[in-house]
Amino acid sequence: MVDVGGKAITARTATATGRVVTRPDVITLVRADDLPKADVLATARIAGISGAKKTSELIPLCHQLALSSVKVDFEFTDDAILISATAKTTGQTGVEMEALTAVAVAGLTLHDMIKAVDARATLTDVRLETKTGGKHGEWTRAGVDTIAAPITVRHQTAAVVVASTAGAAGNREDTTGPVISAWFASRGYAVDAVTIVADADIATELSRVLDTSPAVIITTGGTGMSPSDRTPEATSALLDRELPGVSEAIRARGLAVTPKAALSRGVAGTASGTVIVNLPGSPGGVKDGLAVLADLLDHLVAQVEGGGAHE
Q1: pLDDT of residue 272
Q2: Spatial separation of the C-alpha atoms in residues 60 and 290, rounded to whole Å
Q3: At 46, which helix (H) or strand (E)?
Q4: Residue 146 confidence class, pLDDT cut points 50, 70, 90
Q5: Backbone angles phi, psi at 257, to 5 degrees
Q6: For 41-85, what is each residue's pLDDT tens digit?
């Protein structure tokens, strides 16, 4: 289950649609509420709302949400009942699955109500139409291009975030951030800054740096099993797509030197077009991680920006 603890709390909505295709005479019966099972639309509406409220029970890895509203509506064509469901909440994750589940359950209920007169009725075209809220703002199906446009980040820019409670307090010299910054510079990247924050503040700092849209963010520290180590959780909460092969390659490189490398929980992936990689907090771990990235980073960044060839 994805950790969304680092995400901002915002108002979120989602609207989904679907349709039940049936015969024109069945549409007439539904309109007149003249089927063997009565109260067709009212029953389907209640079922859809109930389905939305039970989404986390039906879909294993969905978060439990405090829904503020669920609305299910119906329209008719000559041969179909159109279903629309809108779900709302204020929280750290979206309500797309709740809206989709409302449509699906309402559609299945309609099928159950009309199957006695039309066993061939079909529930089809269940899909998300719009969603709002969260870091990405508003999304609409009508606005989706058939070919995705390249993601816009500031080309050849990088940021370094050091998670070290002692370093942030000035009680320990940071020996990893400058190394990573110099490594970036040697590869032609302009480094915005090397920031040092306490482990408890890593989620806030990562979100702030991500909002500046660098091409790459490398973190160091906070990847172990100490109670205060939260860098992987803060990073995972931001990622759109994970790169497990990168983090496993970094661990494998470290294991060639020390078995303690197996304890690193660092993750890697992309968020809004920015590549984010967690490295351990030790100088040796940083050295091993940069050695892995030396062969991957330029090609990876080019692919994410939409210009790299697939190999």
Answers
A1: 86
A2: 37
A3: helix 40-53
A4: very low
A5: -105, -45
A6: 999 999 999 999 999 999 998 989 999 999 999 999 999 999 999
DSSP E strand stretches across 10-79: 10-21, 67-76
Side chain identity at residue 221, one-letter code? G
Radius of gyration of the chain (CA): 25
CA–CA distance, 116 with 101 (Å, rounded to integer) = 24
Within 54-156, residue ranges assigned H as helices are 55-58, 96-114
Pairing between β-strand 268-271 and β-strand 274-279 as defined by DSSP bridges? antiparallel
Active-site residue, selected from the candidate residues 3, 73, 112, 192: 112
Residue 147 is predicted with a pLDDT of 43
Among residues 36, 35, 109, the alpha carbon closest in space to that of 72 is found at 109
- Please state the φ and ψ torsions of residue 6, each to the nearest 5 degrees: -90, -5
Burial class (CB in 10 A: 0-12, 13-18, 19+), 77: exposed
**Interior CA angle at 23 toward 19 and 28, to 5°?**
90
Mean pLDDT of the chain: 90
| Range 272-295 average pLDDT | 95
In the residue annotation, 3 being an active-site residue is answered as: no
